[in-house]
Amino acid sequence: MSTSQRVVKNTLFLYVRTIVSLLVSVFTTRILLGTLGASDYGLYNVVGGSIAMLGFISTSMSGVIQRYLSHAEGSGDERRIQLIFNNALIVHYILAVVTIILLGTAALFFFNGVLNIPTGKETEAAIIYGCMMASTVFSITIVPYDAEINAHENMLFYSILGIIDVMLKLLIAIVILYRDNEKLVFYAILMAAESFLLRFITQQYCRKHYEECRKVQMCHYYDKATIKEMTSFAGWNMTNTATGMISLFGMNIVINHYFGTELNAALGIATQLSGVLMGVSMNMIKAVTPVLVKSEGRNQRDRMLEISYVGCKDYDDDIDRLEQKITENANAIAEINKLIEGGSVITKVENITGGVEVTLSNGKSFTIKNGDAGKDGTQWTIGEDGYWYQDGKKTEFKAKGDKGEPGTPGEPGTPGKDGDTYIPGEDGFWYKNEVKPENKTDKTWIVPGVVSVADMGDYYIFSNLKNEAGEATSATVYKYSATFVSSLVHVPSNINKDLGDVVFLPVIAYDNNSKNTAVYEYNSSNQPLYRTLVNGWAEYEYKLNPANVNPQYYTGISFVEQTATTTTRATEVGLPLAKVVTTTDRGRLIVKASAGDNANNPNAFKMYKDDSEQGTAYDNPDGKPMKESTKYGEAGKVNMLAYMVKNTNEQLGETANINVVSDYVATKRMVVEQEETTIGFAVDADKYADPTVKAPALPLLSDMYKKAETKVNDYLASLPVNLKFLYTADPLDLEPLLTGLATEFHTNTGFDADESQYVLTDLGFENVTFQYEAVSYMDAEVDQTKRYLKLDGSKISVIDKQSASIGRQAVLKVKMYVDGKFVMSKLMKIEFVEQEQQTKDFVNTDLKEQTLACTALYGGGAKLAAATAYQTATVVEGLKIDFDQYFNALQVSKAKFVEYYGGGNPTVEVTKDGVKFDGWSFDSEEAGKNLTIDYSNIEGSAITDNNNVYFGLKNQLRAGTYVIKFTYSTTNTAPTYKAFTITATLVVKDPVHTWTYNPSMWEGTEYMLGYGQPTSGDYGAPFLMKATIEDGFMDSWDGCGQWDFELVTTAPASEMTLTTDIATNKHVLNIFDKKWMGKKIRVRAVEYIETKDAAKNNRKINNIVSATKTSEFDIMFVNPVVYAQVNAAAAWYLVDKANTTVLKEGAYLPIYRFVKLYDIKRGETNGMMFDGSQEEPWFERNEVEIGKGLFKMHKVEVSYKLSDKNDAIVQRHASILKSTDGKEVGLLKWNNDEGVLVGDVDQPIIIDVTIKNSWMGQPEQTTTQTQEITVYVKKADTKYTVPATGFLGTLAAPEGLGSYADLN
């Protein structure tokens, strides 16, 4: 945001504050005047005015502190800011103490005749005076924090704080309005509290947002000189402010003394309004002042004057834009220099619209803008010819002088003088040879109004920048900041991640074909296996520290070998050859190393070899034995290499220009055997160079025949054609089409690369070249090579472009050399053709997505319509391909298509979901082939049969994505296309058949409920935990095949089975172990097209369950016996000290009257077993004992026990009775033959009721649930009446609820 915009914004904030303050203050004054009355309000103003006279201290000091803070911020001196703020705090704390002393002393005078205080108000006036003293202290100590906010130009917070201030004062006025007494005292206290709250908010805000406010260390920063400077500066300002304050508030005292407090009230209101209106005119000054002082702090006086003008008139857009560009350019250059010092380097400077863009190695870009918008920057660089180039165009100015002509031969002549060079100066002018005043020319290298950049090698000169005064200036930005290398760190960079942090020196080595007599022409004789034939180069990559060191300040020396040697060794291991690779990636050093010079000394670096009896594969047989090394284990298994650079910065002196050695890295050998080299040829069957074909997919040339081959011509005849060449074509250069390859490589650490194609240059081999020789090849009584092939270096053509060459074949030998060494030769067979036939791949979109249910589908055609497999099929669109489109594309008639590409069915490949698919056939009746392709029409004539290929889908075809590819080719040379393909995609989907769930059998939509079933009838025992799955769904299944359900959850058959009921054709899930009770069991709904037949492997599709929206759902078996407690506590209770010899006087309670049991599936209406709330609790209907039948079927057993939670009284006096034969009946007895045990509070008795039910007739498969019932004993004189439901049985022969075995 520009300065002018910031001033406008801050002024707006201040005006909003002023307007809100004015409106709220008027309203607040009206409330206060009405609440306090004119006398009290005047008293508050006169007492406050006597103290406010000292307000000139804080008012004058606030401007001083703000001025010094803004000045320090403008200069960017962080320590100066800390110094000013801490010393400002010291000054204001001292002023606060002085103020308390002065006001305390002044009180003696004010309250002894100076102030006219109404009789009886003296105490209130003293309290007001004390509160105002506190407010004044708070106001003084907050001054440094207010100055911070103003210095940071944070007028938004300043305005919000001002609005909070007036709102709090309004709130205080409203609170006073509702107070009955002591209103004036309470008002004074609240105003002091409000002053403290504002101080607290301001202090906390500053500590959070401003660094200098967080680091308050007054003792550490105390500086007498700074305090003196600030107080001296404040002197005249304080004098001016003091006279104004004394004049204003002294008038208050005078008016009070002569006219009383009521006139003070009127003057207070007028003064308050006057102050608010004065603030309106001060808002602009308050917003502009910090900006002015900051500019002065930056030594930008012209800019300060400019802002003064901006503050006094409408803001000028041109000045604003210029100021913004100046600031942005200065910030950008400062940021660039900062990043360079931190390790980044400049990687690119380029012109852009409106200036230039500088890019650093960390990826950041900065724009240096022109003074004139819309113009591109200009850039000067030195070309390879030694001249200066402006934006890529050569100029007349030389950057490097030409050497003078030497003297005449014979007598030594005087050397000629170097030519003049031109150097761009920072002032924008060219200098000859050296930048000195006397060498300055009158020619400028800058373009008016445009940023110009000169690349001086180690640094850039940015010229024609505008400074704050609007004058042209320049800036120098160095490319590098570091002056020496401190360390090197190796960075692993292997071709294969499995090779680890080891560097492998590559070689092409002799193979077994050179061990004895040479087998091929490129072999040697009597060479040891794996001896070096050609050395390649390995890359050692290092990270420089620091990364931004100037490359001119260091130079590479050599490798260093760390392995120690024994004294008995005759020769040293030697060092590899080294060369530094030029890179623009700063901070990165790449050094290439080779084990030897291929021309003179292939074994300069004699790497260690395993000299044990078995040896190590791919060691160099000319290397040094490991036993001659004393390091790295018993046998010294590896060579360790580091690289050394020397610092060369002359400015640092010789002592600082030390050698720096990297960390050591293990170095081993990588071997490509000679027979593993080959030559790739980047052509397809009928085109020349094809840039899209690269290793590892390059076609290879044919192998060379052996030296011992006696039937060379026969061998040549058997070779495939590598290139078809148009006999009339211009010469073809083979060189760019050939690539040297390796099919494998190995290391002497035991690594073997996968067989593939590896470009030799990628493996580190350099200077791969080829030579060509014509090979005599006799056929048809002529030498087809020598008669027709013209070879000119690497270029081939047909001699005289003779038509007799059509169909002839020539043979060419290609010899590959690596760094001058003959490594491999291959053969290339070339066929001369009449025209270059093309190939093409068509993508067909005629086939449409099909949903295949139980009925077969086909696209039409008489052949499929007559086929047995499609007699009941449905004809649909999107299952045929119209071949007219291909007749047109190939530019042939149907008859010509049949002539060229016919003669039977084409080659067809089908994949399903990316995998080869064999389940298709041209024959619709072929068993097991569910995709039929009717191609018969294409073989017909143009007028008897149509042009469509039809497709048929039998109902057993599985869903998926089918890709059908037709491949056509011809040996006829007449058509334009010798081969083409048609690829069509057919998507087959399963139908969506749905099972709609039955809500009454489901727990929401989460799972289906398994209730269990009787063995037979309604009550046939034992009760079985089985669920009929179809019961969980409606009868609206929309499938067409045979439905089925599959068990997804895995469990042994002894625990769970899913079977089909033959009689009902429904699926029954059985569980045989109670551990599956309450657990979800996953089931899948499927459908077999036609029937479920394992032998036929019929197609199976998933169905959808409406509750889960998928084919899978859960079933959970629940306890079939449900317990519900009867709320009988109000009717049934016990009475303390009741007669225990009588059943119905309160000593006994039937627990069974609190119990209700029913079958969960049948519910309470139809499945009630026992209902204790009924006089006849066993459920019957139409004289059928349903309750007892269900109770017996579930083998329910109910038992009762006093809970351990009961207290000692209950344990001693309560008991649960059984029948005379020991059966559970559920009768509770209370026996108290002692003193009174129960008072006004009833005594609770907790009973544990245990309900057991089993199924499958197996006791171990029993489910247990325990419920608590609480009954109460009332005090002894409670009246007792037996409820209507009554007891079952008598005291002598009690009955109730117990075991199923007790029922008749």
Description:
The chain is α+β, with helices and mostly antiparallel strands and 1304 residues long. Helices cover 27% and strands 28% of the residues. The strands form 18 sheets. Strands 14, 15, 17, 22, 23, 24 and 30 form a seven-stranded mixed sheet that branches. Helix 1 runs antiparallel to helix 4. The two termini are 98 Å apart. Mean pLDDT is 81; it is low at 309-326, 371-375, 403-418 and 564-571.
Nearest-integer average pLDDT: 81
Oligomer: single chain
Strand content bin:
25-35%
How far apart are the termini?
98 Å
Strand count: 71
Which spans of ≥5 residues are poorly predicted at pLDDT below 50?
A: 309-326, 371-375, 403-418, 564-571
Shape: flat
Helical content stands at 25-40%
Please count the helical segments. 21
Biggest sheet architecture: 7 strands, mixed
Radius of gyration: 53 Å
Provide the structure class. Answer: alpha+beta
